[in-house]
C-alpha cells in the first residue's frame, strides 16, 4: 500500500492552473489597438497633430508639446492668436460640454518657447538652394520646413518687414509685433536669409542669377477690391487692405470722424476696431446679409461690439451723396438668400472703407514659360508645382482656402514636394487613418470640466490703444485646459482595457508603452473596445 | 460616498487608472502587479460580469491584506467556471463548499483561525444570488446574527445561470428566465415581492453592508478594502450583468451595470450597523427603459404593443429607490 505524503488529499489527477485552457480559441472577433484621426487634427489646415501635442502638454512637458507643434507649424505664438481655430469647432468635447481651448494652449506653448528661447536646429546641409518669393505665412513656413530638411533658403520680400498679411493685415491688438518678430527671427536663426525691400521684378533672371535649384512663390493677394457705388461729392473711399497696411506703417490714414466700413468679413472688423483705437467719433459696419451669415469670426464681431462698433446688418450702400450714404434695406428670404426691399435710409459718413476681398499682382511671373494664371490665381498641380518645372506656388495666390493657417499648411506641403523634387522623387503623403468621431468614444469616463476662458482686456483699456486684447492662460489653467483633451482615437493609458477584461487578456507594457492583447486567452467579448474612453480599440472579425 | 473623485482631471475619476495619476489614486486593477486572483483560462462566457466582479473584489482584498485571504465559494457559475477538476483559476487559498453552506464553512474557517491565533488572515465567503438569497440564506442569516468575522460577497446576476437560467428570489419583476414557469401571470418575481438582501442584511444590524457594481471600480475597491478591515460580519452585494442569462451583448456588460445605477433600479450605497451612511449619486439620469431595452429578457415589454403599464411599474420601483436612498442631488446630478 502506497501512502504518498506529498499529494493533496482525495485528488487523483494532477492539479493544474486553468492557464492550460487557451480560451482564445472561442473568439470570433478580435480587439486591435489603433490610432484613429482626431477630428481636430483632421480639421487643422496647417496639419498640426493637435492631440499629440496636447498629450505632452497634459504631462506638463511643454517643451515636448511645443516641438510637436513645430514639426508642422513654425508659428505657435502667432497661430495661438490669429488662427480662427476651426479645430475647436470640430472638437468632440464640444458635444460633451465645451470644446477644448486648443488655441489658448497653443498660444501658451508658443509664448513659453519665446520666454525660454527654445530653438529648432536646421537639417544636415544638402547643398541645394531654394528661392522663396514672399515672406508671408506661406513663404516663411516653406522656408522653415526647407531649412529643417537641410536646404539653403533665401526669401525675397517686397515690404520693409517680413510677415505678410499677418503684419500688414492684422492689427497689433490681435497680433503683438514683438511675438511676430520673435517667431520670424527664430526662422532666420536657422540660417534662412530674408531680403527685405526686394521685390522680384524678373523671376527667371533672379532664379538664374542666384543659382537656385527650385522656387516657391507665395506673394499673396496684395490689392484690396472696391465695390462700385454711384457717388456724388468728395467723400473719401478707401480699401481695407490699404488702410490696415497704412496703420501698420504708421502712415497718416483718414480714419476719423464718422467711419463707415462696408463688408462683413474679418478684414472689415479689423478696420472697424482699428478705427475705434485711432479715435473715430463713430464706427459703423454695413453688411448686406444677416449677422449669422457674416464670414467674420463671431468672437471678432462680439469684441468689436463690446468696444462700441455699430453693426448694420441687411443693409446695402446704394449711393453716396456727399457725406450721406443711402442704404437700401435687404430682406432675408428662404434658403439664406436676401432680396432688395426698395426701402431706403441714410447715415452720415466722413470716410467709407470698402472691405471686399483681395486680388493679386502676378506681373513678375508672366514671363515664366509654363506658368498659368487663370481666374485671378496661379494654377498649380496637386504637388503645388506650377506649369514651370521646379517652380511651386502656395498661399493666397493659388485657388485654395485663403487664410494664414491654410497658408502655413501649404508652405509645409510645398516644402515636402520641393524636397522630393530636388531629390528626383515624388512625395507620397501617408494614408490618413479613419476619423475618431464622437460615436467611437465612451464619453462617460470624462469628468465634467468647463472650459477655461482667456481673460479679455477690459473694454476701456483696449479701445484707447493697440494693446493686445486677449490675455494668456497661466501655467495652472493651461495644464487644466490641456487635460480636458479627450485624446480622441489615441490611447492615453487610462488602464481601462487592462482593468475591464474579464479574462486578464490585456498586458500592460508600462508607462509610455501602452498595452498588448494576449490572444491566447482573449475571448473577444469586446468590453475593452466598448469601455475604451477614446476609441483606440477596434473589434475586427477573426478569419476562421 | 467616502470615495473622493479626482478633481480637474478628465478621466481620473472614472477610469481604471491613468498615466498621470498618483499611484494611490489608481485602482488595484491598474497595477501591473495586481494579484489576478481569478486568472486566465476560466470557462466563464464572453463578457462575464461575475468573473470581472470576482477578480475586482478578491484582488482588492488581497491588496488590502497583503495576500492574507482565504475564500470559501458556494456552488454556482463562479465555482463551476473557475474550477473544472483538476484545473483551477484561483491564485489564492480557496475552498468549494456546497451550494447552501458557504457562510457556515467561512464561519468555521474564521473560528479555526481564531483558535490558531491567526486573526491577521481574513475570510471571505462568496456566491451567486441563488446560493445567497435562496439556498444559503439560512446559513448566511446565522453568520450575520452571530456577527462572525467574515466578509460575504454576493455576485448578483439575478437568476440561476449555471443551470440554464432559472428564476431566483433575486430575479426582478418582468425579467424572463428560460426554464422556470412564472410564479404569477408574468415572468420574473411578482411586483413587490422577492428578496432584497442588502436590506435584509442591514436588518441584522451587522457592522457593514454595501452594494456595488462592476461599472464603478473605484467605489467597489473602496468598499472591499473598508469591509475587509472591519471585525465581524460584513455583506457586499455586487451587481454583475450576465450576457447569457439576460440576452445582452457581451460587450455591454459594464454598460448595463452603469445604466442600472443611472436609472435608479440598483441603488449603490453603504450602511453601518443598519444605517445608510453613504450613497453614490446618479450622475446622468436615464429612464428605466434605456436599461431594459438592450436585454432580451425584457424583450416582451417592447413588442408591437409596448407593455406600458409594466414599464411604468418598473419605473416606479426606480423612482422609489431614488427617493428612498436620495440618489439625486438637488442639482439633479453629481461629479
Short description:
The complex is a heterodimer of chains A (544) and B (335). Chain A is of the alpha/beta class and 544 residues long. Helix content of chain A is 29%, strand content 18%.
Describe the structure.
The complex is a heterodimer of chains A (544) and B (335). Chain A has 544 residues and is α/β, with parallel strands linked by helices. Chain A folds into 4 domains: 18-35 and 491-541, Alpha-Beta Plaits, CATH 3.30.70.20; 39-118 and 448-482, Fumarate Reductase Iron-sulfur Protein, Chain B, domain 2; 129-222 and 360-422, FAD/NAD(P)-binding domain (3-Layer(bba) Sandwich), CATH 3.50.50.60; 230-355, FAD/NAD(P)-binding domain. Chain A has a 5-stranded parallel sheet, with helices on one face. Chain A has a 5-stranded parallel sheet with strand order 9-16-10-11-12. In chain A, helix 2 packs across helix 16 (475-482) and helix 4 (76-82) packs antiparallel against helix 6 (102-116). The longest helix of chain A is centred in the C-terminal third of the chain and has 19 residues, at 404-422. Chain A is globular and about 115 Å long. The two termini of chain A are 52 Å apart. Chain B has a single domain, classed as Thiamin diphosphate (ThDP)-binding fold, Pyr/PP domains (Rossmann fold, 3-Layer(aba) Sandwich). Chain B is 33% helix and 13% strand. Chain B has helices at residues 49-65, 77-82, 102-115, 129-135, 137-145, 197-203, 217-228, 243-246, 253-263, 288-292, 308-325, and strands at 69-73, 87-88, 94-96, 122-128, 151-156, 208-213, 234-239, 269-272, 275-279. Chain B has an 8-stranded mixed sheet, sandwiched between helices. In chain B, helix 1 packs across helix 7 and helix 3 packs parallel to helix 5. Residues 1-8 and 331-335 of chain B have low confidence and may be disordered. The chains are: A alpha/beta (544), B alpha/beta (335).
Amino acid at each position: 500500500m502506497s501512502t504518498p505524503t506529498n499529494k493533496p488529499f482525495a485528488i487523483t489527477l494532477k492539479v493544474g492552473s486553468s492557464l492550460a485552457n487557451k480560451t482564445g480559441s472561442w473568439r470570433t472577433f478580435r480587439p486591435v489597438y489603433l490610432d484613429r484621426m482626431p477630428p481636430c487634427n483632421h480639421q487643422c489646415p496647417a496639419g498640426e497633430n493637435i492631440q499629440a501635442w496636447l498629450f505632452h502638454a497634459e504631462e506638463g512637458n511643454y517643451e515636448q508639446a511645443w516641438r510637436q507643434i513645430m514639426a508642422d507649424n513654425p508659428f505657435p505664438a502667432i497661430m495661438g492668436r490669429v488662427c480662427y481655430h476651426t479645430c475647436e469647432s470640430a472638437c468632440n468635447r464640444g458635444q460633451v460640454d465645451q470644446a477644448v481651448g486648443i488655441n489658448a494652449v497653443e498660444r501658451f506653448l508658443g509664448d513659453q518657447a519665446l520666454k525660454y528661447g527654445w530653438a529648432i536646429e536646421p537639417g544636415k546641409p544638402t547643398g541645394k538652394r531654394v528661392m522663396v518669393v514672399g515672406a508671408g505665412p506661406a513663404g516663411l513656413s516653406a522656408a522653415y520646413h526647407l531649412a529643417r530638411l537641410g536646404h539653403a533658403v533665401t526669401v525675397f520680400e517686397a515690404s520693409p518687414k517680413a510677415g505678410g498679411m499677418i503684419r500688414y493685415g492684422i492689427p497689433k491688438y490681435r497680433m503683438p509685433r514683438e511675438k511676430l518678430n520673435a517667431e520670424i527671427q527664430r526662422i532666420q536663426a536657422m540660417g534662412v536669409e530674408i531680403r527685405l525691400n526686394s521685390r522680384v521684378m524678373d523671376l527667371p533672371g533672379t532664379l538664374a542669377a542666384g543659382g537656385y535649384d527650385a522656387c516657391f512663390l507665395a506673394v499673396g493677394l496684395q490689392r484690396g477690391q472696391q465695390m462700385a457705388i454711384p457717388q456724388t461729392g468728395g467723400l473719401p473711399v478707401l480699401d481695407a487692405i490699404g488702410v490696415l497696411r497704412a496703420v501698420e506703417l504708421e502712415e497718416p490714414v483718414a480714419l476719423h470722424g464718422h467711419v463707415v466700413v462696408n463688408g462683413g468679413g474679418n478684414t472689415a472688423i479689423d478696420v472697424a476696431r482699428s478705427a475705434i483705437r485711432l479715435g473715430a467719433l463713430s464706427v459703423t459696419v454695413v453688411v448686406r446679409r444677416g449677422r449669422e451669415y457674416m464670414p467674420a469670426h463671431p468672437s471678432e464681431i462680439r469684441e468689436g461690439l463690446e468696444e462700441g462698433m455699430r453693426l448694420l446688418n441687411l443693409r446695402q450702400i446704394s449711393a453716396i451723396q456727399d457725406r450721406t450714404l443711402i442704404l437700401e434695406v435687404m430682406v432675408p428670404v428662404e434658403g439664406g438668400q436676401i432680396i432688395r426691399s426698395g426701402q431706403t435710409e441714410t447715415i452720415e459718413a466722413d470716410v467709407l472703407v470698402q472691405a471686399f476681398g483681395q486680388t493679386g499682382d502676378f506681373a513678375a511671373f508672366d514671363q515664366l514659360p509654363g506658368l498659368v494664371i487663370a481666374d485671378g490665381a496661379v494654377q498649380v498641380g496637386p504637388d503645388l508645382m506650377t506649369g514651370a518645372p521646379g517652380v511651386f506656388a502656395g498661399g493666397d495666390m493659388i485657388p485654395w482656402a485663403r487664410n494664414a493657417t491654410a497658408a502655413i499648411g501649404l508652405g509645409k506641403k510645398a516644402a515636402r514636394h520641393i524636397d522630393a523634387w530636388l531629390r528626383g522623387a515624388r512625395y507620397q503623403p501617408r494614408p490618413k487613418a479613419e476619423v475618431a468621431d464622437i460615436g467611437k468614444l465612451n464619453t462617460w469616463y470624462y469628468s465634467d470640466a468647463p472650459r477655461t476662458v482667456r481673460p479679455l482686456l477690459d473694454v476701456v483699456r483696449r479701445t484707447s490703444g493697440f494693446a493686445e486684447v486677449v490675455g494668456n492662460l497661466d501655467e495652472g489653467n493651461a495644464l487644466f485646459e490641456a487635460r480636458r483633451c479627450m485624446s480622441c482615437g489615441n490611447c492615453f493609458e487610462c488602464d481601462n482595457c487592462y482593468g475591464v477584461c474579464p479574462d486578464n487578456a490585456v498586458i500592460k507594457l508600462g508607462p509610455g508603452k501602452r498595452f498588448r492583447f494576449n490572444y491566447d486567452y482573449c475571448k473577444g467579448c469586446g468590453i475593452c473596445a466598448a469601455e475604451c474612453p477614446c476609441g483606440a480599440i477596434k473589434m475586427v472579425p477573426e478569419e476562421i | 460616498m467616502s470615495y473622493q473623485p479626482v478633481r480637474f482631471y478628465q478621466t481620473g475619476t472614472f477610469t481604471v487608472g491613468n498615466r498621470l495619476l498618483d499611484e494611490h489614486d489608481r485602482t488595484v486593477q491598474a497595477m501591473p502587479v495586481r494579484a489576478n486572483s481569478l486568472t486566465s483560462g476560466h470557462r466563464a462566457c464572453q463578457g462575464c460580469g461575475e468573473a470581472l466582479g470576482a477578480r475586482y473584489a478578491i484582488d482588492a482584498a488581497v491588496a488590502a491584506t497583503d495576500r492574507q485571504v482565504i475564500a470559501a465559494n458556494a456552488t454556482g457559475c463562479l465555482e463551476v467556471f473557475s474550477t473544472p477538476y483538476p484545473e483551477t483559476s484561483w491564485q489564492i487559498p480557496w475552498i468549494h463548499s456546497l451550494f447552501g453552506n458557504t457562510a457556515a464553512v467561512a464561519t468555521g474557517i474564521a473560528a479555526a483561525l481564531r483558535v490558531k491565533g491567526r486573526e491577521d488572515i481574513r475570510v471571505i465567503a462568496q456566491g451567486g444570488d441563488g446560493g445567497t438569497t435562496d439556498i444559503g440564506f439560512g446559513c448566511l442569516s446565522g453568520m450575520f446574527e452571530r456577527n462572525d468575522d467574515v466578509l460575504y460577497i454576493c455576485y448578483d446576476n439575478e437568476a440561476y445561470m449555471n443551470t440554464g437560467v432559472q428564476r431566483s428570489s433575486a430575479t426582478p419583476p418582468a425579467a424572463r428566465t428560460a426554464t422556470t414557469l412564472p410564479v404569477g401571470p408574468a415572468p420574473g418575481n411578482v411586483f413587490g415581492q422577492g428578496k432584497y438582501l442588502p436590506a435584509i442584511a442591514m436588518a441584522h444590524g451587522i457592522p457593514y453592508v454595501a452594494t456595488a457594481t462592476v461599472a464603478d471600480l473605484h467605489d467597489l475597491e473602496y468598499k472591499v478594502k473598508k469591509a475587509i478591515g472591519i471585525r465581524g460580519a460584513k455583506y457586499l452585494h455586487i451587481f454583475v450583468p450576465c450576457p447569457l442569462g439576460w440576452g445582452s451583448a457581451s460587450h455591454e456588460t459594464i454598460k448595463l451595470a452603469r445604466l442600472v445605477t443611472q436609472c435608479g433600479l440598483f441603488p449603490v450605497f453603504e450602511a453601518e450597523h443598519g444605517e445608510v451612511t453613504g450613497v453614490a449619486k446618479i450622475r446622468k439620469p436615464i429612464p428605466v427603459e434605456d436599461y431594459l431595452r438592450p436585454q432580451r429578457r425584457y424583450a416582451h415589454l417592447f413588442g408591437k404593443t409596448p407593455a406600458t403599464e409594466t414599464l411604468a411599474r418598473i419605473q416606479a420601483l426606480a423612482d422609489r429607490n431614488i427617493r428612498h436612498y436620495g440618489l439625486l442631488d438637488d442639482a439633479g446630478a453629481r461629479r
